[in-house]
TrEMBL record:
It comes from Coffea arabica. Residues 20-345 form the NADH:flavin oxidoreductase/NADH oxidase N-terminal domain. Pathway: Lipid metabolism; oxylipin biosynthesis. Residues 125-138 have a biased composition (Polar residues). The gene is LOC113712036. This is 12-oxophytodienoate reductase.
Length: 375
């Protein structure tokens, strides 16, 4: 799986730097390249507590001046039900457990943002027997993705919404307390925020449903509350307007993406992270005539694109100004030294889908080999 790189080849490659390897100023952070670790749930945080083995996992994927985004991290005790081994950041103990992970990344010169999330109706029943919360009381259909695992949701009452916004605010404050450089709000992939954004799921009749403006209100209130708490220069938002995961599709994803991109200029958040239209179905890449370019043009801050990228098209995206940064998921999972491999145009380890979500602290997690070089 590992290719030996000859000195001659290394030299030849280093004379032709690719755009992905050029520096970039991300607000206050000086990045040395444009290759970002995409957020990836790894389900190895037993009892929702980040574990010592995550120190190695994240530090393996750290390079000097490289940006890492953590796996989705729950904002409250209702946010992760059904994901027992996903980490949280709502308790003091969780904050303390994140600290050595963040410190290890910083020790190697990396920058790390915590992705803060709430799964909403993609959830089992709550410990107190209550239904999971959502914008709707519509359950995932039995034919839906793993639907039997999930309990029918309860539609949030209008007056309950500020409490959920506050959970995100507190989680962001906790993330800064843990030493994170910032947070990425998870507004993608059919989870709670997306359950408000998308018209094929949001069937509310209050000010959080109906018009585009109303459906985006919850996401924008979270962005504002988090920005007020920790500073908009430390806030990113991830969106997947074109994706239809967990039955959260939209009839006009381009209008939704554009509305959000423009609205995010007001709080002036650090970055907008969008998932490519070609990632319409969970985990699969398919061709699409749609593009993120209109959103990229509409948003004034840093634009991160993700979804199905390899070295060549990621480089092209930066070269053609389609994105400032490119986030890599599966390739980075399987290649802890991905920026180095891209630099050398070296061969890549293949990822193993069957260990994406297993709970072993080593296998499929920290045992992907590094490139062997002669230096
Ligand atoms: C194992 C795994 C876990 C993931 N978990 C998350 C997550 O926690 N949050 C998120 O926003 N996206 C998550 N994703 C999506 C990735 O961030 C990324 O958008 C997706 O894999 C497509 O990019 P890629 O083709 O570079 O892998 C996950 C993907 C994988 C493979």
């Amino acid at each position: 799986m590992v290719k030996k790189v000859e000195h001659g080849q290394e030299k030849e490659q280093s004379q032709q730097p690719i755009r992905l390897l050029t520096p970039y100023k991300l607000g206050n952070f000086q990045l040395f390249h444009r290759i970002v670790l995409a957020p990836m749930t790894r389900q190895r945080s037993y009892g929702n507590l980040p574990q010592p083995h995550a120190v190695l996992y994240y530090s393996q994927r750290t390079s000097k001046g490289g940006l890492l985004i953590t796996e989705a991290t729950g904002v409250s005790d209702t946010s992760l039900i059904g994901f027992p081994f996903a980490p949280g950041i709502w308790t003091k103990e969780q904050v303390e457990a994140w600290k050595p992970i963040v410190d290890a990344v910083h020790a190697k010169g990396g920058i790390i943002f915590c992705q803060i999330a709430h799964v909403g109706r993609v959830s089992g029943s709550q410990p107190n027997g209550q239904a999971p919360i959502s914008s709707t009381d519509k359950p995932l259909t039995p034919e839906g993705f793993d639907a039997p695992k999930y309990s029918p949701p309860r539609r949030l009452k209008t007056e309950e919404i500020p409490g959920i916004v506050n959970d995100f605010r507190l989680a962001a404050i906790n993330a800064i307390e843990a030493g994170f450089d910032g947070v990425e709000i998870h507004g993608a992939h059919g989870f709670l925020i997306d359950q408000f954004l998308k018209d094929q799921i949001n069937d509310r009749t209050d000010e959080y449903g109906g018009s585009l403006e109303n459906r985006c209100r919850f996401a924008l209130e979270i962005v504002e509350a988090v920005s007020d708490a920790i500073g908009s220069h430390r806030v990113g938002l991830r969106l997947s307007p074109f994706a239809n995961y967990y039955e959260a599709g939209d009839s006009n994803p381009k209008a939704l993406g554009l509305y959000m991109a423009e609205a995010l200029n007001k709080p002036k958040i650090l970055y907008c992270h969008m998932v490519e239209p070609r990632m319409k179905t969970l985990g699969e890449k398919s061709e699409s005539a749609d593009s993120l370019v209109p959103m990229r043009k509409a948003f004034n801050g840093t634009f991160i694109a993700a979804g199905g990228y390899n070295r060549e098209d990621g480089d092209r995206a930066v070269a053609e100004n389609g994105a400032d940064l490119v986030a890599y998921g599966r390739l980075f999972l399987a290649n802890p030294d991905l920026p180095r491999r891209f630099e050398l145009n070296a061969s890549l380890n293949k990822y193993h889908r069957d260990t994406f979500y297993t709970s072993d602290p080593v296998v499929g997690y920290t045992d992907y080999p590094f490139l062997e070089t002669n230096d």
